[in-house]
Amino acid sequence: MRILVIEDNPDIAANIGDYLEECGHIVDFAGDGVTGLHLAIVGDFDVLVLDLMLPGMDGLDVCRKLHEEAKKNIPILMLTARDTLEQKLRGFESGADDYMVKPFELQELEARLQVLARRGKSVQTRLLEVGELTFDLDTLIVTREGKSITLNPTGLKLLELLMEASPRVVARHELEVRVWGEELPDSDSLRVHIHSLRNAIDKPFDNPMIQTRHGIGYRLIQNDEVQT
Fold first, then answer.
1. Mean pLDDT value across residues 35-40
2. CA nearest to 73, candidates 99, 101, 110, 40
């Protein structure tokens, strides 16, 4: 499993990370809610371990924004020092899938994360939708207004990243790293591929969806959104 631990107590985070890595999992960390939310949105995690009380943005807000605004269906196990029914209900209402009260046994934590990750894979949606644009990640079929669109592998990856982030602006460097990894292309490659993607996604239709933020990056908007 690839696990993101969002916990501001460095000792607790280190203990969780050491144990989970010994179990063979890949663990990333964030020490505040804002950083944790960003990593959860741009990363590809199987499950999140999320502390309730965090600096910058608490765990409830991270849950809510992750599900409602970013549309990321990542299973979340919430940690808290408060063992009250009201607090647990608030956690579940914000989008948490499981709940553990500090202190806890690391073996039980790992077992619960395994269950959540399996459950998340079984229900995870594989269809991206932004307005009338759809992308089936299993069949790699892209349609807009019911019309099929053919894209090359790079175009498919760029579209996936833009659709997952929509309507957020995705920085040029982030797109380059996510598509090409450490072997970054020359400065014109991304622009050329975005141009080709525009020809396929926007040119045959009335309203453009791919928007350039000059000097920053690109974003994908719904047909009826006003471009600013």
1. 92
2. 40
